[in-house]
Design brief:
Blueprint lengths: L6 H5 L7 H15 L8 H17 L2 H10 L24 H6 L18 E7 L1 H6 L1 E12 L15 E2 L8 E6 L2 E6 L8 E2 L12 E12 L8 E4 L15 E7 L5 E4 L2 E9 H6 L1 E6 L5 E6 L8 E4 L15 E8 L6 H20 L2 H9 L3
Parallel strand pairs: 1-9, 11-15
Antiparallel strand pairs: 2-7, 3-6, 4-5, 8-9, 10-11, 12-13, 14-15
Helix pairs in contact: 2-3
Length: 371
């Protein structure tokens, strides 16, 4: 009688683990027990097969739901625990492909190249750098092709041979009742070939961890979340397969003066009561390095927007610039000198005389309420 081990226990995860946790645990265990890294140890090979089978089921939402409900019975005898469901007889897909090539553009198939994984790098820039653009260098840690074996995984002077189990196809077929199930070859793990004498540097994987310094050109006008793609600078594919890409996600740091909305720049400008009443002007330095003059018309009210045409951010990969919008905030003084109080009292007195000549607001209020 065969003992059926719980898939969650195989991966060392709780039953409510999310997909990212399952994948992370699988990846660590798969790399630890891969036969190529353990001298063909039978125990490790069996462990690797169990890990691969568990992850193949739990990574698929439908398979996982069936397993959570019916256990291993969900995949036996053409039914989901005899409850009228159906088993998935499509077979196990290439396990290593799901780890190293699923992000973007991974390929299936026996000896087809399995593209390396795409990588992400987050780069923070200032608003001024987003305006003018920037040429910079970044340092990333990646899996790169092994220089010793040129990424083949085989010891220099030797070559890989076709897998005798699958004949180089990378997959084997088995009859299950009326169905033919295609599975990843358990001997070569889908590679289609066997490395009898692996490279001593990369241990047959064809890749080693490296630190790379890359040049990045940030164009003018980029915004938060803009992506820059560096083709072929992601993880190298296993055994000479094409490398993935590196995606650089840009983040624009908060500016002390401006808030950005597309190509429009917004700024709050506090002005004095006297300036708002009499008019005036002030200067503001933009991210373009220029000094912009903002003119305040007499009688400007708090909350008014003053638009400076063409003083905003440049259009990404286009022509022209957005606008700069100044939001006026009239400041009411909270502490007055004796002279200021004297002047304001005189102003209030003058306003009172004007009110007698023009009944205005308060007279209309009295009339409205029968006063």
């Amino acid at each position: 009688m065969t003992t059926e081990v719980d898939y969650y226990e195989v991966l060392g995860c709780a039953r409510d683990a999310d997909g990212a946790t399952l994948k992370s645990s699988y990846r660590k265990l798969a790399m630890q027990y891969h036969p190529d890294k353990n001298g063909g140890c039978k125990d490790h090979e069996a462990k690797f097969k169990a890990i691969s089978e568990a992850y193949e089921v739990l990574k698929d939402p439908q398979k996982r739901a069936a397993y959570d409900r019916y256990g291993h019975a969900a995949f036996r005898n053409g039914g989901a625990g005899g409850a009228g469901g159906h088993a998935d007889f499509s077979g196990f897909s290439d396990i290593f492909e799901s780890v190293f090539g699923e992000f973007m553009g991974g390929q299936r198939g026996g000896r087809q190249p399995r593209r390396g994984a795409d990588l992400r790098y987050d780069l923070e820039i200032s608003l001024e750098e987003a305006f003018h653009g920037k040429a910079t260098e970044i340092t990333v840690d990646v899996s790169a092709a092994c220089d010793t074996c040129d990424g083949s995984g085989a010891k220099p002077g030797t070559m890989a041979r076709a897998c005798s189990t699958c004949g180089g196809a990378g997959k084997v077929r088995a009859q299950q009742g009326f169905f033919v199930v295609e599975r990843t070859c358990p001997t070569c793990m889908g590679a289609g070939e066997i490395i009898a004498d692996p490279c001593g540097t990369c241990r047959g994987d064809g890749r080693v961890d490296k630190t790379k310094t890359l040049s990045v050109n940030v164009p003018p006008g980029v915004d938060e979340g803009t992506r820059i793609r560096l083709t072929g600078e992601g993880e190298a594919g296993p055994r000479g397969a094409p490398a993935g890409d590196l995606y650089i996600f840009l983040h624009v740091a908060r500016h002390p003066v401006f808030q950005r909305e597309g190509t429009t720049l917004h700024a709050r400008a506090p002005i004095s009561f006297a300036t708002a009443a009499l008019g005036g002007e002030f200067s503001i330095a933009g991210p373009d390095g220029e000094t912009h003059t903002v003119r305040i018309a007499p009688g400007t009210q708090s909350g008014r927007e003053i638009r400076q045409r063409g003083a905003g951010m440049p259009v990404l990969q286009g022509r022209g610039r957005g606008d700069m919008v100044i939001h006026v905030d009239v400041q009411v003084p909270t502490r007055l000198s004796a002279r200021q109080r004297e002047l304001l009292e005189a102003l209030r007195e003058a306003e009172g005389e004007a009110a007698e000549e023009d009944p205005g607001f308060f007279s209309k209020m009295k009339a409205a309420f029968g006063g």
